[in-house]
Amino acid sequence: MLAYIKGSLEMKFDNYVVIDVGGLGYKVFMSEKAIEEIGNIGDMVKVHTYYRVREDDISIYGFLSNEELKMFELLLGVSGIGAKSSITILSNITPSSFALAVITSDTSKLVKIPGVGAKSAARIILELKDKIKTIEAKSQETATKLQEAIVDDNKLQEAISALQVLGYNRKEIEKVFEKMDIENVSLEDMIRKGLSTLAK
Fold it and tell me: Which of 9, 24, 31, 90 sits 20 to 30 Å CA-CA off 184?
């Protein structure tokens, strides 16, 4: 319903901000990290939003980037992970690091996040990896120059899968890596650079 909110930052609290838009104050829940980075009181700000409606609650969640919003939406789709847990996860890990942890099945990185135990970490990884497999099975990709390289380059395949975790289409990801010099670049840097390009 609400794609984004743009207005004057009126108040900042531990877990939400208030943004004034034409005399209306919107209470927007955000991660601690995003609240720190959003700006100062009185600044004009813009946040991407997720409008959550439940029988007993209507809330707006805000994000400084589309990547954070996509990660939030993905986490909500994991059984047992609610909005508050998703915001806590966003407060403690970047989208690129999160995607890398999922693709490499690095539960140790996820269990460091407050409120995420071993079972939750394993469930997040399993369900999001299954989502990628479903997308792959349904899609019929046309051959590209990158396809042959993907077969021989596990790092490239993992980078593509990581960006798919964050909701990007495989074809658009491949176009990005076709134009990128990916030699002597770490997997996390590949993910970060891919994110930066796709977000434009």
Answer: 90
